[in-house]
Amino acid sequence: MNIFKRLFRIGQAEIHAAVDKMEDPIKMTEQGLRELRNDLSQATEAYAKVKALAIRTENDQLQRQQESRSYAEKAILIMQKAQSGQVDLVKAEDLAREALTLHKKYYLESEEIGQQAVALQQSSREMLRNTEILKENMEKWEKELRTLTARAKVSKATEQVNKQLAQVDSNGIIAMLERMKAKVDDQEALAKAYGEISRDSNSKKEELNSLLKNDSLSIEKDLQAIKEKLGIL
């Protein structure tokens, strides 16, 4: 059968070289499994047909055996009737010979059909065993395919990440970060300088206002002293 020829090809060592040359081994494997699933379906259907034929053949054998026994009984019965005088002996013998002829005919047919039934049963058992083997292998191969597909996806993603990391210019990025750090330090220093300038300016203004305020109070005191000395209220 084509199924088992394909299984034999899969088991050959040359398949490894063929897989290495495939553009996409996973897709090719999936296609092969789809073909095997189709073969498995056909094998299951073929087994069912052979099994049904074996059953029909066994039924035919049983029917021939019953016919053979029936005609053997009829031959005895007709001779018993001749013995009792119910049937003419010569006629009874002719009928008995015909019955025995049919008895032998159906007996030989039942034997021949029985051999066919045995062969069909053996073929159906072999087909069932091979179908079960194929089914078990299919389940194992499909499981392995799922595992390999997942591993392939992970390895592909890892490859892309590692490739991107390998292409990164670490020295260039570090240099840019150093320049940014220097620029931020300069900006922070400048902001701090402006803050100190602003605080110094405010301090001087406050000192001047304080001095002016103190002078104004001193003058008022002197004026008041003069007014008191002169008696000006």
List the helices and strands and how they pair.
Layout (H helix, E strand, L loop, with lengths): L1 H10 L2 H8 L3 H59 L5 H79 L2 H61 L3
Helix pairs in contact: 3-4
Model regions low in confidence, pLDDT < 50 over at least 5 residues: none
Order of helices and strands: HHHHH
Number of domains: 2
What is the number of helices? 5
Q: What's the pLDDT, averaged over the residues?
A: 79
State the major sheet.
none
What's the shape?
A: rod-shaped
Classify the beta-strand content into a percent band. Answer: under 5%
Task: Describe this structure as you would to a colleague.
- The chain is mainly alpha-helical and 233 residues long.
- It folds into two domains: 2-168, Orthogonal Bundle (Helix Hairpins), CATH 1.10.287; 171-233.
- The chain has five helices and no strands.
- The chain has helices spanning 2-11, 14-21, 25-83, 89-167, 170-230.
- Helix 3 (25-83) runs antiparallel to helix 4 (89-167).
- The longest helix has 79 residues, at 89-167.
- The protein starts with a helix and ends with a helix.
- The model has no long low-confidence stretch (mean pLDDT 79).
